[in-house]
Design brief:
This protein has helices at 41-49, 60-74, 87-105, 127-134, 145-160, 183-191, 209-216, 229-241, 289-301, 315-318, 324-333, 359-364; strands spanning 5-11, 14-20, 31-35, 52-56, 108-112, 141-144, 162-164, 169-171, 199-203, 221-226, 248-252, 261-266, 302-313, 336-344, 367-374. By secondary structure, it is an alpha/beta fold. It has a 7-stranded mixed beta sheet, with helices on both faces. It has a 6-stranded mixed beta sheet with strand order 1-2-6-5-4-3. The longest helix is centred in the first third of the chain and has 19 residues, at 87-105. It starts with a strand and ends in a 20-residue tail after the last strand.
């Protein structure tokens, strides 16, 4: 556990301090002023852009309205650095804009009591949402309103769950665990031919959705691994709720559990770029570290004749962050062969949003399930990348 950080400010001519909380990993602001309902949006936005945080003492609902006003001011068209930026330039500009926007909007701060209540007029009961993200409180603290709204949204997702057609049930994501809202990759795992029904490893299980799908398909035992405590708790809760705990064992591990299996499944982060916050590790994989580590260790954990299923979007290829040749070379270097591939077009709303800065890449994106086997288990035929069997795009 990292040491607590503290935020400092002056109020009523007295020096004040409180614990600082930021799940996005932002450091406590160095300059803080106390603000209330009398401040206007232009003045607040100017202070936030200058790096001065506003500790709110006014009405909670007015703070929400102010945050919306700040967001409108932050929605500025990016400077045109080039007439036609490359996909990689578009991606980098988009990430820079996202980071700057998050930093600016994160400057509107709220006080919290030790029980996670917000001591402001018309503040809602946010105790459960904060408890799920922060754990039990032990002292007053300060956090951003923007982060609190994210906690509330995550709490609602956890209560409602995400409908998974392949399960005929809902998966309930915990705060900080990637929600399986992109159902196409789940459908690929639900449809691919099983090499065996005795044992499977689900590496990096997250919510446990793929482990649950494998168990529903009749695999007698599934070992689901993760190294994130939130993911482990989330997966265990989901498989128990689905009545699959006798089949699915959730264990803490960095990638592979001990032993070998005839089927090993992994859905690593798809974008080889540096995450800007701890919560982005489910999406961004610097230098494709998890992908490469999974490929490098796969052959040693497969039973003879077994398969590794790599579920991977090619969005990185369309953004210029990783080429198809690099992926195939990593597969070959790990002593693996491609024995089949199933493809599906994403169905999420961004794929059809022409206003999205990355629309061209998202429109071309394909998600694939690569069926991999240890090279020595092959009969000498190199199936390469030509054995793909595209599935219906839905």
């Amino acid at each position: 556990m990292s040491e607590p950080q503290f935020i400092h400010w002056t109020e009523a001519d007295e020096a004040c301090a409180a614990r600082w909380r930021s799940e996005s990993g932002l450091p406590p602001p160095k300059r803080v002023v106390v603000a209330d309902d009398r401040i206007n949006a232009d003045a607040a936005y100017r202070l936030a852009c200058e790096g001065t945080a506003l500790l709110w003492r006014g009405d909670f609902q007015n703070a929400r309205q102010l945050l919306q006003a700040l967001a409108r001011r932050a929605e500025r068209k990016p400077r045109k650095a080039a007439p036609s930026p490359s996909p990689l330039e578009s991606f980098n500009l988009h990430r820079q804009a996202q980071s700057q926007r998050a930093r600016t909007l994160g400057m509107l701060l709220l006080p919290f009591d030790a029980d996670h209540s917000v001591p402001l007029r018309r503040a809602p009961d946010v105790g459960q949402a904060c408890l799920e993200a922060y754990g039990p409180g032990d002292a007053p603290y300060v956090a951003s309103l923007r982060e609190l709204l994210g906690l509330i949204g995550a709490h609602e997702w956890r209560k409602k769950g995400v409908e998974i057609a392949a399960l005929g049930a809902r998966i309930h994501p915990h705060y900080g665990v990637f929600a399986p809202v992109r159902s196409e990759y789940v459908d690929l795992v639900a449809a691919a031919p099983l090499p065996a029904r005795t044992l499977a490893f689900d590496v990096g299980t997250g919510t446990g959705v793929l482990a649950a799908v494998l168990a529903k398909r009749g695999i007698a035992r599934v070992v689901a691994t993760d190294q994130d405590p939130r993911a482990l708790a989330c997966a265990a809760e989901n498989v128990a709720r689905l009545g699959l705990a006798p089949q699915v064992e959730v264990v803490a591990a960095d990638l592979f559990p001990p032993g070998r299996a005839p089927l090993i499944v992994c859905n690593p982060p798809w974008v080889p770029a540096r995450p800007s916050s701890p919560l982005e590790h489910a999406v961004y994989d610097p230098d494709s570290r998890m992908l490469r580590s999974f490929l490098a260790g796969l052959a040693a954990h497969l039973e003879p004749g077994g398969e590794g299923w790599l579920i991977l979007s090619d969005l990185a290829e369309h953004l210029g962050l990783r080429s198809r040749d690099e992926l195939l070379s990593a597969i070959a270097a790990a002593g693996l062969e491609v024995v089949g591939r199933s493809d599906v077009k994403p169905r999420h709303p961004r794929a059809g949003d022409a206003a999205d800065p990355l629309h061209a890449a998202r429109a071309a994106e394909v998600t694939s399930l690569w069926r991999l086997a240890a090279r020595q288990a092959m009969d000498g035929n190199d199936s390469g990348d030509t054995t793909s069997t595209p599935s219906a795009s839905g």
